[in-house]
Amino acid sequence: MLEGETHLSQLSTLITKEEIENRVAELAAEIREDYLGKNPLLLGILKGSFVFMSDLIRKLNIPLEIEFIRLSSYGAGKEPSNRIRLVHGINVPLKDRHVLIIEDIVDTGLTVRYLHDYLNRKRPSSIKLCTLFDKPSRRVVDVTVDYLGFKVPDTFVVGYGIDFDEKFRYLPDLCIMEGQV
Ligand code: IMP
């Protein structure tokens, strides 16, 4: 245990790494069928999506390209702010590209809505959304999820790339974080 981290006893497993692995394989099969021959651009939202992205592309195993964009909504706490900030954009041309957004978790939907507006200005052929986790009960704006891994309850989760205050991204399972730090 690293000093200053929440005690691991405050974390309980919600979705195991085996369940995640199986679901990622199923998602990859669906996406492969839809995008084969289209050389899609998978656009990961940093930092949370990097673990999912790396597992997904190896299971997809079709020609594709990847880019990352960095947006921030959560600060150092658990509550999202209504303001989304673009930390790093992308420079590659998107005109006539098939863009598949890769997200770790959709909560209020504000991040994805912001990204849609940003991407639409670059005139891609299509924009779709793949998220591994979704908290639909928290939605503030409508978002169409094209590929969904798991619905999760309205609770704060960490692991599989998802952090609390930059901690716990390394956990292989998706865990519920209870209590305060
Ligand atoms: P949204 O804009 O409210 O949909 O928030 C999406 C972003 O908030 C995700 O990309 C995550 O980075 C973060 N987020 C949402 N829910 C959680 C959570 O339960 N744990 C950690 N980060 C979360």
Q: How would you describe the overall organization of this protein?
A:
By secondary structure, the protein is of the alpha/beta class. It has a single domain, classed as Rossmann fold (3-Layer(aba) Sandwich), CATH 3.40.50.2020. It is 23% helix and 33% strand. It is built from three helices and nine strands; from the N terminus they run E-H-E-H-E-E-E-H-E-E-E-E. It has helices at 17-35, 50-60, 110-120; strands spanning 11-15, 41-46, 65-74, 80-88, 98-106, 126-134, 147-151, 157-158, 174-177. The strands form two sheets. The chain has a six-stranded mixed beta sheet, sandwiched between helices. Strands 1-9-8 form a three-stranded antiparallel beta sheet, covered by helices on one side. Strand 2, helix 2 (50-60) and strand 3 (65-74) form a beta-alpha-beta unit. Helix 1 (17-35) packs across helix 2 (50-60). The longest helix has 19 residues, at 17-35. It is globular and about 45 Å long. The model has no long low-confidence stretch (mean pLDDT 91). Bound molecules: inosinic acid (IMP). Inosinic acid binds at residues 45, 48, 73-74, 80, 103-111, 156-158, 162.
